[in-house]
Amino acid sequence: MERSQCLVSDVVDRKQEEAHIKDALCKCGYLKWSFDKVKSQMQQRKQKTQKKQDQLPSRSLVVIPYVERTSEAVTRIMRKYNVPCAMKPCETLRSILVHPKKKEDKEQTSESVNKVSCANCDKTYVGKTGRKLGVRLQEHRTEVEFKTKRAFTRSQRSSSSAEYNKSALTDHALQENHVINWSDASVIDREPDRATRWIKEAIHIRKEGQQAMNREEGSYQLSHAYDRFLGTGLTYCAKNRKKK
Fold first, then answer.
1. Pairing mode, if any, of strands 85-88 and 62-65?
2. How far is CA 148 from the centre of its chain?
3. Can you state the percent helix, strand and coil of the chain, rounding each to 5?
4. pTM value > 0.70
5. Domain that residue 168 falls in
6. Same domain? 155 vs 166
7. How many C-beta neighbours within 10 Å does residue 168 have?
8. What is residue 9's predicted lDDT score, i.e. its pLDDT?
9. Helices 32-55, 11-27: inter-axial angle, 10-degree rounding
């Protein structure tokens, strides 16, 4: 009886289903008064539930992302407390197919954490800047080209390799006689807040591990307690740090 009330939505079909159930159960020996009693109990239960929901304060609509099976369970729980709940898809065809905004040129990107790689080895340099990336890269490039274009004798090159320049990129180019891959420079993170940008730079340097050509761990001294959380297999190479 209760299933017929819940599953059959049309009034005429519901009456026909009830008549069919009564006829089938009467043939099995059930008395007619038992049907009236069950129907009365169902009506009382429905009125009690409705009264309880009416006593609860009305809530505003809650919209949750649709996750199969999970969203349905959450909706049932909220319905008990008279909280209307609607579901929306996490991804739509519009979000997947339509990208009207033109991609920003990486050299015009400001307030970023960037990475520059070496063309001859797997070393990378992680830096930060609040200005446009193209301006900061040009400063690095100018210093590297100025230092590397000079002709060195063996003794001069040996003494220059022991010196520290303004940029760790210059040190790597001079000491290893490698070429920096400027065209492969990329923005790996963006952050308008300067203090947070320092923290993100330190995190990315730590994640690079032994591949980082940075002399220091960044402007922010990140605790090594986060190494396990960041999943860094090898800790930052301390010998690369600038000696004070």
1. parallel
2. 41
3. 50, 15, 35
4. no
5. 107-240
6. yes
7. 22
8. 72
9. 140
